[in-house]
Amino acid sequence: MSIGERLKEARKAKGFSQDKLAEAIGTSRTVITDIERDKTEHPRVSYVDTICKTLEISKEWLLRDEGPMAYPLPEWNANEILTQIHEILVDLRPEEQIYVLDMIKTYEKHRIALDKET
């Protein structure tokens, strides 16, 4: 499989159109189209890095078809994260705590709406 074919596979797996991916990485749709059609033999490093971060794929897989498509996610412990959040919140004034809670609720609403779109 070519770089272009792997890019197209990863882009579609993440639910990105060519336009949406181009916008996310700050380029034109033509650049994405050219890479997917293998018209660009060696895509710019800045594009490759940004594409991999945006699509959460490994650079080795995209460029050389080596290793897994997705890059390994960092391990995390839910209790550890909740403890860190708690430590931050207890130092805030009550009105700041309410503000943070409102931000989390707003994020959750937008995330749910985005999930429904894809």
From TrEMBL:
List residues of the HTH cro/C1-type domain: 7-62
Protein's UniProt keywords contain Transmembrane helix = no
Source domain of life is Bacteria
**TM segment ranges:** none
A Gene Ontology cellular-component term? cytosol
Q: Which GO terms describe its molecular function?
A: DNA binding; DNA-binding transcription factor activity
For this protein, the record's InterPro entries field holds: Cro/C1-type_HTH (IPR001387), Lambda_DNA-bd_dom_sf (IPR010982), TransReg_Diox_bact_type (IPR050807)
Classification via SUPFAM superfamilies: lambda repressor-like DNA-binding domains
Q: Which UniProt keywords apply?
A: DNA-binding
**What PROSITE patterns does its record include?**
HTH_CROC1
Protein name per its UniProtKB record: Transcriptional regulator
- Organism of this sequence: Eubacterium limosum
